Amino acid sequence: MSPVLETEDLRRQFGRLVAVDDVTVDIHAGEITSIIGPNGAGKTTFYNLLTGRLDPTSGTVRLRGRDGDLIDVTDRSANDIANLGLSRGFQINNLFEGLTVLDNVRIARITRENRTTDITAITSEDSELTDGAWDVIELVGLEDVAETECANLSHGDKRKVEIALALGTDPSVVLLDEPTAGMNATETRQMVQLIGRLNDETDTTFVVTEHDMEVVVGISDRILVLDNGSLIADGTPDEVLSDEQVREAYLGLEGDEELEAGLGTDGGDDGGEMA
Amino acid sequence: MVSLGLVFDQLITGLTIGARLFLIAVGLSLIFGVLDVLNFAHGVLYMIGAYAALWAIGAVSIPFIGLLGIGFWPGLVVAILAAGLVGVLIEAGFIRRVYDREPLDQLLLTFAFVLMLTDVVKTTFGSGSNVVDPPGLLAGSLTLTSSLSLPNYRAFVILMSIVVLAAIFVVLQTTNVGRLVRATSSDRDMAALLGVNVPRLYTVVFFVGAALAGLGGALAVPTQSITPALGNQVIINAFVIAVIGGLGSFAGAFVGAYLVGISIAVGSLIVAGAGQLIPFIAMIVVLLLKPEGLFGGAEA
């Protein structure tokens, strides 16, 4: 498996706190990789380092660009990294609530389609831009609500728009933060199916942080476990769930049942840090 | 009893003042709305626009360079570019480094530019006042009745402010670039994740805001005497407008600018020499009753 995204001894300190502690990992192209870990394990900081929102204290991030070369993106700006093909699912409160779903996705397409230099380009008459946005909307299955203002969408649809925005930049890797947080059972099932389908149909690599272990096990080709900023396990769902160190990380939980229960009910996410 | 003609003249004067104030207030709002920076130096950019126009017209000369003397219309372009480029220098060279700091640091930094640039202009052009005539094309007046007439140049200035407001609305609401500006204004991290080059967009927005101030200053040249203190005079009114209209709102900047302009001109009829009194009273009333401004809270 060729890596599409890899880190080498990636480290970030905030004062004395080591939020991400020399993490070396490679994300395989075309796979769905979940990152799990208790609150404060460093998942959010790890994402912020990957997307260029935070600079690492030390270490390297490499991303396979659209031309196939592995590029050192450690010191690149967030927009450069986005243009190289790394995208991140946005939090709901980042959608443009007053604009329609179509307009939201169009915004994601503007830079991708290189529509920034012509200041006279009228968005609604830019057919290439609109066609590109429609492709993404159809892919995610938002056709019925394309002309609806985001403020009037159901929670489940808003989360789909997040994914549509992330896909709008034609990424090779999409990072998602808790894609099923706050969803009911039906919406959760649909979201899991959607991510699986997008992964199959578009060959997009997904990295997902998630608390719901049922979702994690159902969706992942591979699971990474972070604890106190360190990578403590890396493997298939079966391998990771039977790992002793992973159980210890969850405060002495013993046995698979308790582990799953402990992870699954860990409801408070680190959304606050991400906002 | 004041005559109808006098009231009308003052009204036109007020509208002209309002139009010029709008051009500075709208740039201030644009920069605040997108960059979240309160640019104290915006009045100085207006003043630089005015001097650039004076230089281009041939009314003042720069030591060792001399006069330009290319006339009023090319002078408008010179003023827009001069103010815009000084703005880019301030943003890309300095303000960019303090985006993540306290708002107070940004305010102090831009205030430093007020002091420095005012002195630079004073040293270059002297502190005397300069008066020029409107361009020949717009000399004369439109006679409405025997006692009422509308100077062509003032009508032009008022028209320009409406054109600028309309242009800003059209660009922001309909174009791709406008959408990126609004997206960045609402969440710059998200915009960067969508691939927007936020620092470059900030520089472009600062250029546009500064250029509008320069245009306002250049348009002021034939209607008032220009001194290096002009920047400080207008920035206070621009902040009054921002409070009344709601900072970040373009409609608020427009309505606020005309309210302030008219109340300065008409107010001086009521109490001679106290033209600034009414805008300040209006500002206090707005601060007490609707602190977010008349148009505050609405998306820019």
UniProtKB/TrEMBL annotation, chain A:
Q: Which SUPFAM superfamilies match?
A: P-loop containing nucleoside triphosphate hydrolases
- Got a GO cellular component term for this one? plasma membrane
Keyword tags: Amino-acid transport, ATP-binding, Nucleotide-binding, Transport
GO terms assigned for molecular function = ATP binding; ATP hydrolysis activity
Enumerate the spans annotated as ABC transporter domain. 5-253
Q: In terms of domain of life, where is this protein from?
A: Archaea
Show the segment(s) annotated as Disordered. Answer: 255-275
Q: Which GO biological process categories is it annotated with?
A: amino acid transport
Give the family per the record: Belongs to the ABC transporter superfamily.
Write out the function statement from the record.
Answer: Probable component of a branched-chain amino-acid transport system.
Q: What is this protein called?
A: Probable branched-chain amino acid transport ATP-binding protein LivG
Q: Which organism is it from?
A: Haloglomus irregulare
Automatic annotation (TrEMBL), chain B:
List locations, semicolon-separated.
Cell membrane
A GO molecular-function descriptor: transmembrane transporter activity
| Assigned keywords, A-Z | Amino-acid transport, Cell membrane, Membrane, Transmembrane, Transmembrane helix, Transport
One Gene Ontology term, aspect cellular component: plasma membrane
**CDD domains this protein is in?**
TM_PBP1_LivH_like
- Positions of transmembrane segments: 12-32, 44-66, 72-95, 107-125, 153-172, 201-222, 234-259, 266-289
**Pfam families registered for this protein in UniProt:** BPD_transp_2
State the annotated membrane topology for this chain: Multi-pass membrane protein
Record's InterPro entries? Answer: ABC_transp_permease, BCAA_transport_permease
**One record GO biological process:** amino acid transport
Q: Which family does it belong to?
A: Belongs to the binding-protein-dependent transport system permease family. LivHM subfamily.
PANTHER family per record:
ABC TRANSPORTER ATP-BINDING PROTEIN, BRANCHED-CHAIN AMINO ACID TRANSPORT SYSTEM PERMEASE PROTEIN LIVH
Indicate what this protein is called per its UniProt record: Branched-chain amino acid ABC transporter permease
What is the organism field in this record? Haloglomus irregulare
